[in-house]
Design a protein that fits this description.
180 residues; alpha/beta; Rossmann fold; 5-stranded parallel β-sheet; globular; binds ligand FNR
Amino acid sequence: MKKIGIVVGSLRNASFSRMVANYLKVVLDKDYIVSLISVDNLPLYNEDIDHKDNAPTEYKEFRKLIKEQEAFIFVTPEYNRGIPGALKNAIDVASRPYGESVWNNKKAAIISQSPGSIGGFGAATQLRPVLAVLNMPVMPTPEVYLSSIYLAFDKTGNLVDDKVKKILNDFIEAYKKFLD
Ligand code: FNR
Protein backbone atom coordinates (compact mmCIF):
# COMPACT_ATOMS: atom_id res chain seq x y z
CA MET A 1 0.00 0.00 0.00
CA LYS A 2 1.15 3.50 -0.83
CA LYS A 3 2.27 5.72 2.05
CA ILE A 4 0.57 9.10 2.29
CA GLY A 5 1.52 11.95 4.61
CA ILE A 6 -1.12 14.48 5.57
CA VAL A 7 0.75 17.62 6.57
CA VAL A 8 -1.17 19.78 9.04
CA GLY A 9 -0.31 23.47 8.78
CA SER A 10 -1.52 24.48 12.25
CA LEU A 11 0.00 23.91 15.68
CA ARG A 12 -3.24 24.59 17.59
CA ASN A 13 -4.66 21.85 19.82
CA ALA A 14 -8.20 22.46 18.59
CA SER A 15 -7.09 22.99 14.99
CA PHE A 16 -9.77 22.74 12.29
CA SER A 17 -7.02 21.78 9.83
CA ARG A 18 -6.29 18.75 12.01
CA MET A 19 -10.01 17.89 12.15
CA VAL A 20 -10.11 17.93 8.34
CA ALA A 21 -6.93 15.84 8.25
CA ASN A 22 -8.43 13.34 10.73
CA TYR A 23 -11.49 12.92 8.50
CA LEU A 24 -9.30 12.38 5.41
CA LYS A 25 -7.21 9.84 7.30
CA VAL A 26 -10.21 7.76 8.36
CA VAL A 27 -11.41 7.52 4.75
CA LEU A 28 -7.98 7.03 3.17
CA ASP A 29 -6.87 4.43 5.76
CA LYS A 30 -8.81 1.79 3.79
CA ASP A 31 -6.50 2.07 0.78
CA TYR A 32 -3.27 3.65 2.01
CA ILE A 33 -0.90 3.83 4.95
CA VAL A 34 -1.66 7.33 6.21
CA SER A 35 0.42 9.41 8.63
CA LEU A 36 -0.59 12.76 10.06
CA ILE A 37 2.48 14.99 9.98
CA SER A 38 2.96 17.83 12.45
CA VAL A 39 5.11 20.81 11.62
CA ASP A 40 5.79 21.83 15.21
CA ASN A 41 8.99 21.18 17.12
CA LEU A 42 11.28 22.21 14.26
CA PRO A 43 13.93 24.88 14.91
CA LEU A 44 13.68 27.73 12.40
CA TYR A 45 15.62 26.72 9.33
CA ASN A 46 19.18 27.99 9.46
CA GLU A 47 21.92 26.80 7.13
CA ASP A 48 24.50 27.56 9.83
CA ILE A 49 23.24 24.71 12.03
CA ASP A 50 22.46 22.32 9.17
CA HIS A 51 25.81 20.57 8.91
CA LYS A 52 25.96 17.43 6.83
CA ASP A 53 27.00 15.16 9.71
CA ASN A 54 25.61 17.24 12.54
CA ALA A 55 22.15 18.58 11.67
CA PRO A 56 19.61 19.12 14.48
CA THR A 57 17.88 15.87 15.50
CA GLU A 58 14.50 17.45 14.73
CA TYR A 59 15.60 18.15 11.13
CA LYS A 60 16.88 14.59 10.71
CA GLU A 61 13.73 13.00 12.13
CA PHE A 62 11.43 15.21 10.05
CA ARG A 63 13.36 14.50 6.84
CA LYS A 64 13.21 10.76 7.57
CA LEU A 65 9.45 10.93 8.10
CA ILE A 66 8.92 12.89 4.87
CA LYS A 67 11.27 10.58 2.95
CA GLU A 68 9.15 7.57 3.96
CA GLN A 69 6.01 9.06 2.37
CA GLU A 70 5.18 8.60 -1.30
CA ALA A 71 2.59 11.38 -1.64
CA PHE A 72 1.11 14.20 0.41
CA ILE A 73 -1.97 16.19 1.25
CA PHE A 74 -1.42 19.61 2.81
CA VAL A 75 -4.25 20.89 5.02
CA THR A 76 -3.63 24.45 6.07
CA PRO A 77 -5.15 27.56 7.57
CA GLU A 78 -4.45 31.00 6.12
CA TYR A 79 -2.32 33.44 8.08
CA ASN A 80 -2.41 36.98 6.68
CA ARG A 81 -3.24 35.75 3.19
CA GLY A 82 -0.36 33.30 3.19
CA ILE A 83 0.64 29.97 4.70
CA PRO A 84 1.58 29.80 8.40
CA GLY A 85 5.29 30.32 9.06
CA ALA A 86 5.57 26.93 10.77
CA LEU A 87 4.37 25.16 7.63
CA LYS A 88 6.77 27.07 5.39
CA ASN A 89 9.58 26.35 7.82
CA ALA A 90 8.84 22.62 7.71
CA ILE A 91 8.74 22.65 3.91
CA ASP A 92 12.08 24.46 3.87
CA VAL A 93 13.68 22.04 6.37
CA ALA A 94 12.79 18.98 4.29
CA SER A 95 13.91 20.68 1.06
CA ARG A 96 17.55 20.78 2.18
CA PRO A 97 20.45 19.94 1.90
CA TYR A 98 20.46 21.25 -1.68
CA GLY A 99 19.91 18.41 -4.12
CA GLU A 100 18.59 16.06 -1.42
CA SER A 101 15.04 17.37 -1.01
CA VAL A 102 12.80 14.60 0.29
CA TRP A 103 9.78 16.26 -1.33
CA ASN A 104 11.22 15.73 -4.79
CA ASN A 105 8.92 14.20 -7.41
CA LYS A 106 6.14 13.31 -4.93
CA LYS A 107 2.53 14.11 -5.76
CA ALA A 108 0.60 16.49 -3.54
CA ALA A 109 -2.80 18.07 -3.06
CA ILE A 110 -3.89 21.10 -1.07
CA ILE A 111 -6.87 21.87 1.14
CA SER A 112 -7.23 25.20 2.90
CA GLN A 113 -9.79 26.15 5.52
CA SER A 114 -10.89 29.22 7.39
CA PRO A 115 -13.58 30.44 9.76
CA GLY A 116 -13.92 33.31 7.29
CA SER A 117 -15.67 33.42 3.96
CA ILE A 118 -12.89 32.80 1.42
CA GLY A 119 -11.71 29.48 2.86
CA GLY A 120 -8.01 30.24 3.04
CA PHE A 121 -7.79 30.77 -0.73
CA GLY A 122 -4.73 33.01 -0.28
CA ALA A 123 -2.84 30.31 1.60
CA ALA A 124 -3.61 27.58 -0.92
CA THR A 125 -2.70 29.88 -3.78
CA GLN A 126 0.60 30.72 -2.13
CA LEU A 127 1.41 27.07 -1.38
CA ARG A 128 0.95 25.87 -4.97
CA PRO A 129 4.08 27.54 -6.49
CA VAL A 130 6.14 26.55 -3.42
CA LEU A 131 5.34 22.89 -4.09
CA ALA A 132 5.89 23.36 -7.82
CA VAL A 133 9.43 24.61 -7.33
CA LEU A 134 10.09 21.52 -5.20
CA ASN A 135 9.17 19.42 -8.24
CA MET A 136 5.94 18.19 -6.68
CA PRO A 137 3.10 17.58 -9.12
CA VAL A 138 0.09 19.24 -7.48
CA MET A 139 -3.44 18.01 -8.17
CA PRO A 140 -5.04 20.78 -10.24
CA THR A 141 -8.70 20.14 -9.38
CA PRO A 142 -10.89 19.96 -7.43
CA GLU A 143 -9.67 23.01 -5.56
CA VAL A 144 -10.88 22.88 -1.96
CA TYR A 145 -11.20 26.08 0.10
CA LEU A 146 -13.41 25.36 3.10
CA SER A 147 -15.11 28.48 4.47
CA SER A 148 -17.00 28.93 7.79
CA ILE A 149 -15.15 25.86 8.95
CA TYR A 150 -16.40 26.12 12.56
CA LEU A 151 -19.86 25.11 11.31
CA ALA A 152 -18.59 21.85 9.82
CA PHE A 153 -17.51 20.07 13.01
CA ASP A 154 -19.14 19.31 16.33
CA LYS A 155 -17.44 19.94 19.68
CA THR A 156 -15.62 16.62 19.59
CA GLY A 157 -14.23 17.21 16.11
CA ASN A 158 -16.64 15.04 14.14
CA LEU A 159 -17.53 16.25 10.66
CA VAL A 160 -21.26 16.94 10.77
CA ASP A 161 -21.80 19.02 7.62
CA ASP A 162 -22.95 16.83 4.73
CA LYS A 163 -21.94 19.39 2.09
CA VAL A 164 -18.37 19.50 3.42
CA LYS A 165 -18.37 15.72 3.67
CA LYS A 166 -19.27 15.50 -0.02
CA ILE A 167 -16.61 18.04 -0.96
CA LEU A 168 -13.99 16.02 0.92
CA ASN A 169 -15.20 12.67 -0.42
CA ASP A 170 -15.08 14.02 -3.99
CA PHE A 171 -11.61 15.39 -3.28
CA ILE A 172 -10.49 11.95 -2.05
CA GLU A 173 -11.83 10.19 -5.15
CA ALA A 174 -10.00 12.66 -7.41
CA TYR A 175 -6.84 12.31 -5.33
CA LYS A 176 -6.88 8.51 -5.62
CA LYS A 177 -7.13 8.80 -9.42
CA PHE A 178 -4.37 11.43 -9.40
CA LEU A 179 -2.09 8.98 -7.55
CA ASP A 180 -2.72 6.08 -9.97
C1 FNR B 1 -5.46 34.14 11.07
N1 FNR B 1 -6.68 33.82 10.51
C2 FNR B 1 -6.95 34.19 9.21
N2 FNR B 1 -8.05 33.70 8.55
C3 FNR B 1 -8.26 34.01 7.24
O1 FNR B 1 -9.25 33.57 6.65
N3 FNR B 1 -7.39 34.81 6.56
C4 FNR B 1 -6.28 35.32 7.13
O2 FNR B 1 -5.51 36.00 6.47
C5 FNR B 1 -6.04 35.01 8.50
N4 FNR B 1 -4.92 35.50 9.13
C6 FNR B 1 -4.59 35.01 10.37
C7 FNR B 1 -3.35 35.33 10.90
C8 FNR B 1 -2.97 34.78 12.11
C9 FNR B 1 -1.59 35.12 12.65
C10 FNR B 1 -3.82 33.91 12.80
C11 FNR B 1 -3.40 33.31 14.13
C12 FNR B 1 -5.06 33.60 12.31
C13 FNR B 1 -7.65 33.00 11.26
C14 FNR B 1 -7.42 31.52 10.98
O3 FNR B 1 -7.96 31.21 9.74
C15 FNR B 1 -8.10 30.69 12.07
O4 FNR B 1 -7.46 30.93 13.30
C16 FNR B 1 -8.09 29.21 11.73
O5 FNR B 1 -9.07 28.53 12.49
C17 FNR B 1 -6.76 28.58 12.02
O6 FNR B 1 -6.75 27.24 11.59
P1 FNR B 1 -6.64 26.04 12.61
O7 FNR B 1 -5.62 26.41 13.65
O8 FNR B 1 -8.00 25.89 13.24
O9 FNR B 1 -6.26 24.85 11.79
